[in-house]
């Protein structure tokens, strides 16, 4: 008995000692459930907004009982995302109402990028748990469920480790074990019309213990100095290093160089934007500065645990002389009207984040800045000042105005309308108007004495009603002149109409005999499918150069007018989407050279190059198709398109006195040069044609006119370029003195090479554009 008692006593003593030891050891912070994201969209006037991001689709905020986020485009996959890429285990729910039962709509979890995520969908009488990884989609499990288009259903993804479960209205429907994706954001998924509401993400978050600071901003830049303001741009670094989303920005400025030791004593900028997700481009305008002064800028990021990054690189800029300029900060529509009415040369009007609505125009009339001191209307934070409702901006008989950084979601009126104005700059604005089924020109330039306006670094997207993204008109007799359109991104216009849906129209029939000298350069057109003419020139002496047209139905057309030039452009198709075209011309003295065409599928009106027939000769109704005279189609490269060069396909009058010279044309179907009508006095020289498969040269020609030879291409950055042994090298014929460089903007040397490419090992200066090269956040 005594021994048993002693054994129990020893066990009790050891237990007490162990418990005491536990109280002395450091304890890891408890992991508790936390709301990672909650959103009912009630505070939004547009979408994406807040922390939501989307690169495609037609998203908006509508009222369906309460405010909901709606996607209305069809024919593609559209995803809006939020949250942090570092999220791993969480429960994500959202209410979803499908617009149709035969398209996929739902929610996304562990979203890494557009090729990697889980998604829970309602589709065709089923609920699907799918995974997309490395661009390939698979169904993990599916179950029968019939959705009604008038009902919101709560979809929920419960993701923990390798377990992925999907619920509908609280009932477990599908589940799987999968280790393919370990972390990522959440998203709203629409393959057609769908509405979303009441987002909630809960997960495990440590109460404390976050010791990882955000990375320092490394690309802070200062630009667009005015007399009292400077625009800053940077890329958001993240929360933990380069991932996630930080909590706050601390932006400072000083007339002395900023260092870590004096950062906290520098002036803090007012109105700093909320940090965006890692990798997102951000900007703000720092106002209240003195004229003719050099300022230095730096910033520091902080996370939720108050971990601060190192200071950024230091940027600097000098403000302009001012000459009486002032900064006016506005936050309401009434403020903006008042500021515009009293604006003078050098005035900078800064719109704080928010929505500016009214039933009419924010009007600028008879206001004239100067080249040194323009009147500037700009967003404090790019894309966060929204012109909405029935509002728009008009400028009449005004000059030297800058409109910068705004977002236009208005309806019923052109977003910006310039009338009889000059030297107006429209830069870094986002045009995504709310359509109402009526024809509308989103940006209009017209009136007598319109000239020297610049439209640059804007985004135009998602146009489905008739009308143009940009329309150039003029007076009754003269198109606007010397305007420039550059570094803009045009995307998603369509579906295809028979007329009046060009991305850009330059002039119109009644003034087509006037010359515009308008230049369109360094623009990117993607999926611009609205009209048989992606860009329609209806005036003369214009230039279309160094643009990239990707997967867009229709052509760039010289529809009316004479003496237009098209050079250094890239027309790129996927080889399968129908009606992808190149360049079509009518009229006199056009030049088409140094252009690259590949993977295009169009013919006839949508041919790769159409030197078309005419229905009038040198005079006639101005809306007719004027006979082609003296066109020069020189040094172009056509690779694996359905058509090559088509001549006189439509109408009765064949082209006359024209030249087709020094082009490289390859293809495996149809005639590479197709004379639908025998041209009158056509010159062929120096061309290289290489038909394969069922392709044919198409014309009876000598070797000096059209040599049949393999051009011996080599693939460089996705393009077919001349190899060192190509027979095209130093093989051109004739004298075309304007062909001084090639599609890469590298100089031609000795005897020019045939085609758009001059063989060279030098670094290229012109290449096909991608989205990062253009638009509101491009360099």
Shape: globular
Low-confidence stretches: 1-32
The rounded distance between the terminal residues' Cα atoms is: 88 Å
User: Largest beta sheet, briefly?
Assistant: 14 strands, parallel
Total number of helices: 2
The helix/strand class is mainly beta
**Average pLDDT figure:** 91
Order of the strands making up the biggest sheet: 23-24-27-30-33-36-39-42-45-48-51-54-57-60
Can I get a quick summary?
The protein has 779 residues and is mainly beta. The chain is 4% helix and 40% strand.
Topology:
Blueprint: H1 2-24, E1 31-39, E2 53-54, E3 59-64, E4 66-71, E5 78-82, E6 90-98, E7 105-113, E8 116-123, E9 126-133, E10 136-144, E11 153-160, E12 163-168, E13 171-177, E14 185-190, E15 194-206, E16 221-223, E17 230-235, E18 248-254, E19 267-268, E20 281-286, E21 294-302, E22 315-318, E23 327-330, H2 333-341, E24 348-351, E25 354-358, E26 361-365, E27 375-379, E28 385-389, E29 392-396, E30 399-404, E31 407-408, E32 416-419, E33 422-427, E34 430-431, E35 443-446, E36 454-456, E37 459-463, E38 470-472, E39 484-486, E40 489-493, E41 504-507, E42 519-521, E43 524-528, E44 533-538, E45 543-545, E46 548-550, E47 554-560, E48 565-567, E49 570-572, E50 580-585, E51 591-593, E52 596-598, E53 609-611, E54 632-634, E55 637-639, E56 645-647, E57 659-661, E58 664-667, E59 673-675, E60 683-685, E61 687-691, E62 706-708, E63 713-716, E64 719-722
Parallel strand pairs: 23-24, 24-27, 25-28, 26-29, 27-30, 28-31, 29-32, 30-33, 31-34, 32-35, 33-36, 34-37, 35-38, 36-39, 37-40, 38-41, 39-42, 40-43, 41-44, 42-45, 43-46, 44-47, 45-48, 46-49, 47-50, 48-51, 49-52, 50-53, 51-54, 52-55, 53-56, 54-57, 55-58, 56-59, 57-60, 58-61, 61-62
Antiparallel strand pairs: 1-15, 2-5, 3-4, 4-15, 5-14, 6-11, 6-15, 7-8, 7-14, 8-9, 9-10, 11-12, 12-13, 16-17, 17-20, 18-19, 18-21, 21-22, 63-64
